[in-house]
Please model this.
Amino acid sequence: MKLQQSLIVGLVAVSLVACGVSDTVEEAAVAPVESVEATSEVEQELITARVAAAPSCDSLAYDQGRTDCVLALGEDMLVFFDYGPVEDDGFRGASALTIAVNPFDGGDYQTFEETVSSSGNPELADVNNDGLLELMVPTYLGNVNTNWSVYQQLDGALDKAGEVSGLGLSYDDQSGLAAISARSSAVSWVIERYRLDEAGLTLVYALNTDMAEQTCSLDQGPAFAASGLNANDILTRCEAGMGEE
Model:
């Protein structure tokens, strides 16, 4: 459905808070804005209440995970995260996370859901160095590794790019790819590199390291052939530094 002009006005004000432009949440929520004939007092009160109830996700401590929060996605969108109960919960302790994307230009109000059991908070990062932030939602936390649902910005909305597992997805300067590392045992790690484009996340390679055996092995993914990388070079670096590429 289309956003009402009043909601857009309120959300633009909220973005100032998330970006650190305004000193307080309250000031941004009630700041006077031009052309607000459609904004009733009731609507403004609802906007103010939602802003006050939604801290910035990146301001939350780790043990505050699964707390309703908001992130500013660049200058064009706000993303609200609301946690609720899961119907017929097959995994004890899971939550239904509703993600609402609010564009400021009057575009569609996008909502989708994830089922999460992690105590981590949603994060933003530019994992393919294209100047646009990706959204990473932690959905499950194991003994060490976290499962992440990754969303990228496409055509003014968020589109699910795929899922990864490990200690966090980030941009790797050396390979020019999205990178994540996961521990597979006390002495072994898997170092993965992904291409991220409009088709989503595509595995380039998975480098398996065993510190006990002092060995490295490489699994080539679907995007390896087009990457221009050399398998022997990757293995040589791995064997020389045991996992430090």
